[in-house]
Amino acid sequence: MNFTLEIWRQFDGSDEEDKGRFETFKVTDIDPDASILEMLDQLNERLSREKKRNIAFDSDCREGICGTCALVIDGTPHGPQQVTSCQTYMRDFIDGQTITIEPFRASTFPVVRDLAVDRGALDRVIQAGGYISTTTGPQPDPNAMPVAPEVQEKAMDAAICIGCGACVAACPNGAAMLFTGAKVTHLNVLPQGQPERESRVVGMVEQMDAEGFGGCTNYGECSRVCPQEISIDVIGMLNREYRKAKTKRKPKTEKAMSTQ
Amino acid sequence: MTALDSKIPPGPMPEKWQNWLDAHSLVGPRNRAGKNVIVIGTGLAGSSCAASLGAQGFKVKSFCFQDSPRRAHSIAAQGGINAAKDYANEGDSIRRLFADTMKGGDFRSREANVWRLAQLSQNIIDQAVAQGVPFNREYSGALATRSFGGVLVQRTFYTRGQTGQQLLLGAYSALEHQVAAGNVEVFNRHEMQDVVIVDGEARGVIVRNLVTGELERHAADAVVLASGGYTNVYYLSTNAMGSNVTATWRAHKRGAYFANPCYTQIHPTCIPQSGEYQSKLTLMSESLRNDGRIWVPRKAGDDRPPAEIPEAERYYYLEERYPAFGNLAPRDIASRAAKVVCDEGLGVGGTGRGVFLDFRDAIQDQGKDAIERKYGNLFEMYHRITGDDPYETPMMIYPAPHYAMGGLWVDYELQTTIPGLFAIGEANFSDHGANRLGASALMQCLADGYFVAPHTVTNHLAKKHDEVAVTDSAFDQVEGDVREHIQKLIDVGGSTSAQAFHREMGHVMLDKCGMSRTAEGLDEALTEVRRIKADFYSDLRVDPGDEEFNQSLEYANRVSDFFELGELMIHDARRREESCGGHFREEHQTDDGEALRDDDHYAKVTAWEYEGDNPVPHDEDLNFEEVKLATRSYK
Question: Does the residue B137 lie in any domain?
Answer without folding.
Answer: yes
